[in-house]
């Protein structure tokens, strides 16, 4: 059987006849491109993921327990000095690397272009999100007399634009030799009937497969091997959209080292028991971020003897790992979640359809689902006003307006 016929058989088996019709309309060159893409897709996996969207999610509520944390503001002076010194030693020794996850679509913000290229209106002139992150890293470099290797993860969709933007702005003064940009893996988008969407280029439309893809993409891109060669022992992984993110917090790093854990995270306390954020806990004895949809209301309201929420430590995408931990996770398979999203596509007549309502599923794995592979996690509670000002939504909570206020307040202090 030739390649084309083989491809057609696969498409028939998985009920993707609309792609067979498309294939037959294309010229030879485009046919070959599409065939190559189809051969690279795991249709069995996509079918399973699609079928899962029709099933009820099972919550294993009974086995949830609170997790221990240390409050940065309440550390004794000795403890703080000890952690800071330990952390500082690691950074000064060149054993610390930072990864920024910038492969998201940023659909809620609605900015044209990669999220890192969004300009936040601060101090009159404004600053790009990438610029703000660079400033944070440059400050650490100056303080600890090093240049921290910086790895930026993009998606196939936004890679070219990200590279062009950073080049144009000369990496905001960061030493370019220490910046590595790598792309994450993707999965096809599927409509409500399980049919794969077609994009404007007459190829199957794919999108980044969630920030949980960071680990395997670090391995596949060769970045992990490079880190090991450089002698990196600790890796920080953070998001692109928190303008108060501290990417080189020596207290967090020293605490992780002191506690001999493989993974650590900075949290901030929930604004109220019903805030829609994931919180740290333990499930079946393993660390886990429990989504607000998974945490029963009663548990969300539980308080300890000091009046603190038992499940109050929110996950803010401020995570730290030993290099061994990254290596271990990168070989595991993370579970996928489905997000019902609006995605444009090309219909059978070749017309582009821009939906007004969610029309398709995007499959994503989450960075925090990897915590379950470990027995323990060290959590350092930071402060919302110092550590957390996300740019997620166009308006309202976690929007450019709230991030601007928090950013300026922090820097005016
Ligand atoms: P979010 O889950 O908030 O997604 O990402 P988003 O893409 O920024 O925004 P929406 O949901 O489409 O509105 C949290 C962090 O994870 C990164 C994002 O770039 C952000 O830093 N991310 C997300 C990836 O790197 N890859 C992905 O596939 C998804």
How would you describe the overall organization of this protein?
- With 413 residues, the protein is α/β, with parallel strands linked by helices.
- It has 14 helices and 20 strands.
- The strands form 6 sheets. An 8-stranded mixed β-sheet has the order 2-20-12-15-11-3-6-7, with helices on both faces.
- It is globular.
- The chain starts with a helix and ends with a helix.
- The relative contact order is 0.16.
- The mean pLDDT is 95.
- Uridine 5'-triphosphate is lined by residues 101-108, 115, 153, 184, 208-211, 239-241, 317, 364, 392.
Keywords for this structure?
413 residues; alpha/beta; Spore Coat Polysaccharide Biosynthesis Protein SpsA, Chain A; 8-stranded mixed β-sheet; 14 helices; 20 strands; globular; binds uridine 5'-triphosphate
Terminal CA distance: 70 Å
CATH level 3 topology: Spore Coat Polysaccharide Biosynthesis Protein SpsA, Chain A
Bound molecules: uridine 5'-triphosphate
Q: Please give the radius of gyration in angstroms.
A: 22 Å
CATH hierarchy class name: Alpha Beta
How many β-strands, per DSSP?
Answer: 20
Identify the strand order in the major beta sheet: 2-20-12-15-11-3-6-7
Approximately what portion of the residues adopt beta-strand conformation?
Answer: 15-25%
Tally of distinct domains: 1
- What general outline do the C-alpha atoms trace? globular
Q: Which structural class should the secondary elements be placed in? A: alpha/beta
Proportion in helices: 25-40%
CATH homologous superfamily designation: Spore Coat Polysaccharide Biosynthesis Protein SpsA, Chain A
> Which CATH-level-2 architecture?
Alpha-Beta Complex
- List segments where confidence is low: pLDDT < 50 over at least 5 consecutive residues: none
Biggest beta-sheet profile: 8 strands, mixed
Mean pLDDT: 95
